[in-house]
Design goal:
Blueprint (H helix, E strand, L loop, with lengths): L1 E5 L8 E5 L9 E10 L2 H7 L16 E7 L11 E4 L30 E5 L3 E3 L6 H5 L1 H14 L8 E5 L3 H12 L3 E6 L2 H9 L4 E4 L6 H8 L5 E6 L6 H7 E9 L12 H6 L3 E4 L5 H14 L5 E5 L4 H10 L5 E5 L1
Parallel strand pairs: 8-9, 8-11, 9-10, 11-12, 12-13, 14-15
Antiparallel strand pairs: 1-2, 3-4, 3-6, 3-15, 4-5, 5-7
Amino acid sequence: MQAMKLSAPGGIDKLHLADIEPRAPGFGEVQVRIHATSLNFHDYAVVTGLLPTDDGRIPMSDGAGVVTVVGEGVTEFVEGDRVLSYFFPNWPGGRPTLPQLIGVPGDHIDGFAAQTVTMPASAFSRMPANLDFAAASTLSCAGLTAWRALVVETDLKPGDWVLVQGSGGVSVVALQMARMMGCRVIATSSSDAKLERLGALGAEHLINYKTHANWGEQAFALTGGRGVDLVVEVGGPGNLPQSISALAVDGCISLIGVLTGWSGEMPTAALMTKNGRLSGITVGSQADQAHMIAAVEAHDLQPVIDQTFPLAGLSEAFRYQESQQHFGKICVEF
């Protein structure tokens, strides 16, 4: 079978196609034929060396496929089951602990840029019945991150305001989920064309942050001076002053990305005055994934896929991600 491997110390040009032998499953393991994976910033960070990993690592944290061989002792799956990977295979539920955040596929262990993988059965959930493999593969990182921000870390109600930033995978699915929950959405982007598409997905107000530098104040005003109940923060330190400005009293900023840098200054007094919360989020638990899948099926949520690439085109896919031209998710189908 074929897999994409990464040569240390990393770089998109260090990805190469390799022939490897699939491993038969041992006790408690399953062999899965992978049909699709999707690109996340975490994968980009691994591939480019921002997050160093072992030489020869098979990248990609997301995987959707079909169980082909079931090892001894496995009771949760049978041959032919469609399955979806867990980003954190050691985090069953509850609040996170450090040991539960170890073992991320494509980073700490080999991931899903491979035609076949053999892993513990506990590394997979069932796949949403309403989705194909590519759409399902967008959920285990980006989808679950958005779900945790909207549902687990907050107490949103229909009619509450949510602010999403940009048109990347997490932001777009967060918009879709927020509308699914009956929330009102404000979306920001530097592209008027992308703002138009965000509006078509249900964003009620659209702000071009290039032409409105104080977009936080504008967002606050658009809510009638109430402020937004949740900001899905993908930018990090460069955005936080404006996000705090947009925030309602007792609102929450779910920090899920640091695209503007790893650290920076923040108006802490303004956050304190609003009694606001800044909640750092890295994906979610297996229990969270089960709840998300149930909601995706109940509402027939269809993730937005910008473009798909073949396995051998993984480097091209990452260069496309790097260009920031995409809207929604970028997938690789085998």
